[in-house]
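#struct-pred
JK: can someone run the complex with pyridoxal-5'-phosphate? inputs below
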Amino acid sequence: MFDALTRQPDDPLLALIGLFRADERAGKVDLGVGVYRDETGVTRVFRAVKEAERRLVETQQTKAYVGPEGDPVFLERLWALTTGEAGRGRATAGLQTPGGSGALRLAGDLMARTGTRRIWLGLPTWPNHASIFTAAGLEVVTYPFFDIPSQAVLFERMMEALSGAAPGDAVLLHASCHNPTGANLNTEQWRAVAALVAERGLLPVIDIAYQGYGRGLDEDAAGLRILLSAVPEALVAVSCSKSFGLYRERTGAIYAVCGSAETALTVRSNLAALARVSYSMPPDHGSAVVSMILGDEALMADWKAELESMRLRITAIRERLAAGLSRRWQVLTAIREQEGMFSLLPLEEADVMKLRAEHAIYMPTSGRINIAGLKTAEVDAVIEKFLSL
Ligand SMILES: Cc1ncc(COP(=O)(O)O)c(C=O)c1O
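RT: done, structure tokens with the ligand placed:
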């Protein structure tokens, strides 16, 4: 029976991790990784997470199922963190999910149930977006978002493409810290997108996976909040993987903003039914940790302080990379204004392979680099190697 299957290509980023591990050269540099690393190259557990875990071990009485919706207190606190005032009082159906990926997949499945046929994705975007929505049975269409050689957001072309979307089409937007480009919309552009989405009757699907890594917790959700205030319905997929460093705990949520409380109940029952036939119940540990942090003033303050120090480390490295790399590529001063962990460099595949072969610097052939993959001490040496290309 299994002979009917064909071998699937390795995920290029996972394959890159394997190549990096196998490289025995001292001083090798991993710019491909998709997780935050500190100045010594370690992805640490947040202090507040450790403390919350300790308290959970002491107080948790049961490992019984949490139910397909997950924990309502977690959902409420995460919603408040994500949407602030803009989310208050909105009729919302929330479901705890296995990470942001699980949230996006449920969003896709829900849209397929409602008869939504198409979803618009910006180019480029996180490659898994297209895979997830295609797997959910939606047709994926694209709008231009970013021009690599000029490092510019193609805002006019994006608006022009979205003006051609049919009412009822879905459009995916990154809330901030765009993966893979680091390029984001400004406030005025968010307002224009919100007006267009509302006017054309499109369904916004907002992916927020890096809150706190760009300009700050509220700042990174500002565009999302503008959009929510302008539309009657939306889907918001939240990942706690990066913001709480809970990657492997698979922690996230999907929220559907609905026109009425009655509709929200119906939507929640559909989301729960979709979860039930997929993974049934969400994992609990990560969301219990997040819920505890968000419900405890001291833990919350410590988590915010640590996240802020991570954000500042990223912006400091962005400064140095922008100054260094713009000596050769003038457009790369843009790295300074870009946000979050990623930037997309205008490199040829041959350059990427040369960096890998000659200098043990690893990144995918797309030219995406993870700024947080750089140890503080190696930034200057890495800049020199780029300049030697
Ligand atoms: C843009 C974007 N959305 C969603 C996710 C999903 O993250 P996870 O499923 O690990 O929570 C990621 C992870 O890399 C991402 O980059």
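RT: quick notes.
The chain has two domains: 10-45+300-387, 54-297.
Residues 10-45+300-387 form a domain with the Aspartate Aminotransferase, domain 1 fold (CATH 3.90.1150.10).
JK: thanks, will look after standup
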